[in-house]
């Protein structure tokens, strides 16, 4: 009994436990907790290894995506999104003088940064390392506000993941699409140059005409050779034969045709070179366009493989009873702590 009359006992044990009992029994505000669970998938990580299956890890879940969601939920941007939809100072200021926003817990400060940190302490995210499931718990001084904040956070997380996917797809596709546009413009230019050449020359394909001209030139040369041989044989046998004059005239006509064909061939040769240059450029750009199209398809595939997909496993719950504070646990903890301290000091 003498123990209870000692000032040290009351200073270390008695007064703290009386304050603890008064606070947790009569003052502490009830706190409601809304919970939800979700998972983030990434198709590019869908392959399961033997070790992952044995450990119970999901094949398509993305730990990287889960941590992205966790960081986003606690970020300043998400806090501002929630604050625009819900009056956080009003809702968080409804608690008791110790735990509420603007109370003893925040040292009576009410700045935006203080409210952000208060929001972070009341919105908790946990990640299961094996399954990758994200558990969200949101605390509030009423079941309605706890559920409303949890729903807002989930919808914002989905929008954030969708926005990341769109940005990632745009980054993957940008270079490929720009390259395809450049090649398509070059191909249009090549086709226009080829059409202008055909209009200017009146020849669709000079290479074919040049080939047929060579065939004609060879035929004329053979004809000239045969006529010359026949002329030589007749002139030797019968110099005054009238056929000799006819053969000489025929040889002259063939020679004239050979000269005109050679002249036309030189002109066709220059035109065929230009035509070949234009067609090679066009064909190269067509082949390059096929390669670029394949690159665009590959970029689309890469973008799809690296997308994150957020699935809600359980929607935010609407609590029917307060879950916090754990009054008895706190009071027992204070009692045990003060008794240990008193035992060390006496």
UniProtKB/TrEMBL annotation:
It comes from the Bacteria. GO terms for cellular component: plasma membrane. GO terms for molecular function: protein tyrosine kinase activity. InterPro entries: Bact_polysacc_biosynth/exp. Signal peptide: none annotated. The keyword Membrane applies. The keyword Transmembrane helix applies. Keywords: Membrane, Transmembrane, Transmembrane helix. The chain crosses the membrane at residues 20-41, 328-345. PANTHER family: FERRIC ENTEROBACTIN TRANSPORT PROTEIN FEPE, TYROSINE-PROTEIN KINASE. This is Lipopolysaccharide biosynthesis protein. It comes from Pandoraea thiooxydans.
């Amino acid at each position: 009994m003498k123990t209870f009359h000692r000032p040290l006992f009351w200073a270390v044990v008695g007064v703290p436990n009386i304050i603890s009992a008064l606070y947790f029994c009569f003052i502490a505000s009830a706190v409601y907790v809304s919970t939800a669970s979700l998972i983030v998938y990434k198709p590019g990580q869908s392959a399961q290894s033997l070790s992952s299956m044995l450990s119970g890890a999901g094949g398509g879940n993305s730990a990287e995506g889960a941590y992205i969601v966790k960081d986003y939920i606690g970020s300043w941007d998400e806090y501002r999104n929630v604050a625009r939809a819900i009056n956080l100072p009003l809702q968080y200021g409804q608690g008791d003088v110790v735990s509420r926003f603007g109370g003893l817990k925040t040292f009576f400060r009410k700045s935006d940064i203080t409210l952000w940190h208060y929001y972070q302490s009341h919105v908790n995210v946990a990640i299961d390392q094996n399954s990758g499931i994200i558990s969200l718990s949101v605390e509030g001084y009423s079941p309605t506000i706890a559920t409303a904040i949890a729903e807002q956070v989930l919808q914002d997380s989905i929008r954030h993941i969708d926005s990341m996917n769109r940005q990632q797809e745009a980054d993957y596709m940008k270079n490929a699409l720009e390259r395809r546009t450049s090649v398509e413009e070059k191909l249009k230019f090549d086709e226009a140059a080829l059409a202008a050449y055909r209009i200017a020359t009146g020849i669709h394909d000079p290479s074919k005409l040049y080939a047929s001209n060579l065939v004609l030139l060879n035929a004329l040369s053979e004809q000239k050779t045969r006529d010359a041989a026949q002329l030589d044989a007749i002139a030797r046998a019968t110099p005054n034969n009238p056929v000799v004059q006819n053969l000489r005239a025929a040889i002259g006509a063939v020679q004239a045709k050979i000269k005109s064909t050679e002249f036309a061939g030189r002109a066709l040769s220059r035109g065929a070179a230009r035509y070949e240059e234009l067609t090679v450029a066009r064909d190269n750009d067509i082949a390059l366009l096929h390669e670029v199209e394949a690159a665009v398809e590959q970029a689309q595939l890469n973008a799809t493989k690296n997308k994150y997909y957020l699935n809600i496993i359980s929607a935010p719950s609407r609590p029917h009873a307060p879950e916090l504070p754990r009054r008895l646990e706190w009071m027992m903890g204070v009692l045990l702590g003060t008794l240990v301290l008193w035992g060390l000091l006496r």
